[in-house]
Amino acid sequence: MNSLQMLDSSICERGKPSDCDSEFPANVRRTNNIRCQIRAIYAQFLYILLYSEMLYLYLDESGDLGFDFFSKKPSCFFTVAVLAVSGMDNNRRIINGVKKTLRRKLGKRAEELKGTRTTLEIKEYFYRQVADVPFEVFSMTLNKRRVYDELAKRKDRVYNYIARHVLDAIPVEAAGQRVQLVIDKSKSKREIRDFNQYVIRNLQGRLDPKVPLDISHIASHDSLGLQAVDLFSWGIFRKHEKGDQSWFNIYAGKVKKDSIYLP
Question: Which secondary-structure segment (H or E) carries 214?
């Protein structure tokens, strides 16, 4: 059980008969109230412990932003996912998990792990290397058929909007040292500038002024963290696009946000 699971399980859900039912004697209720308070304090401690270090955010997408459903065959959904890892040691363990999978399952010539090009067996092997690392996955999936025509022409705006909603779900406020956001380098210079400005406006207001925010756009074959989130993003996209949850179900316990925009 990782730290976040411990945090979730340690919070007392008030109102459950086992803890706070008014039918219990007063002394039992007082004891349970104290227990609830202790659990809440412990949960807060775990939360601070987990996020008080450097926070690494790896952002990737799956699917496409094509909207011509008549003459072409674009995807019906578009997923943006973020892998959130707190602390240098945990980040190193994710990186090593990717390295080990590349070396042992794909050989020396393999450049990167890709969700679209790796078998379920390889994905499962990768997850076994990182299953006990306390990381989280946040995502939002766009139902493209519900996007109105005018907005479909502003693909960069659609991307930025979905990415912002995913980042909004991550508790960056508790980051104690630095937030490093790494994105797959697939945008033009103008799109990179617009994206950075958009994200900075929305994130910096939630960060302590003493906590720097770094944004890097890196080719996925040069970032092992991006390769890790590519696998998770593909699993979420595949669930919505094809109804295939075989890979998603393996790491579903790590997914803290999996929402549909325009369902």
Answer: strand 213-218
Range with the lowest mean pLDDT among 5-14, 44-53, 78-87, 227-236?
A: 5-14
Q: Which of 145, 128, 229, 151 is nearest to 183 (CA)?
A: 229
Structural tokens at position 4: 């976040």
Give the span between the Cα atoms of 23 and 38, in whole angstroms.
22
Annotated domain spans of the chain: 3-48, 53-261
Contact 80, 137 (CB under 8 A): no
Sign of the four-CA dihedral 56, 113, 76, 186 = positive
Measured CA to CA, the distance from residue 246 to residue 230 in angstroms comes to 16
pLDDT above 60 for 75:
yes
Q: Do 139 and 163 form a contact (C-beta atoms < 8 A)?
A: no
* Average predicted confidence (pLDDT) for the chain: 88
- The pTM for the full model equals 0.80
Read off the tokens for 225: 């963290």
Q: How far is CA 1 from CA 9, 47, 188, 253, in A?
A: 10, 15, 41, 10
CATH fold for the domain made of 53-261: Nucleotidyltransferase; domain 5 (3.30.420)
Contacts of 132 (CB under 8 A, 6+ apart): 2
Q: How does DSSP assign 136-160, residue by residue? A: EEEEEEEEGGGS-HHHHT-HHHHHH
3-state SS of 100-134 is HHHHHHHCCCCCCCCCCCCCHHHHHHHHHHHCCCC
When mean pLDDT is compared across 20-29, 37-46, 166-175, 218-227, the lowest value belongs to 20-29
Q: What is the pLDDT of residue 77?
A: 98
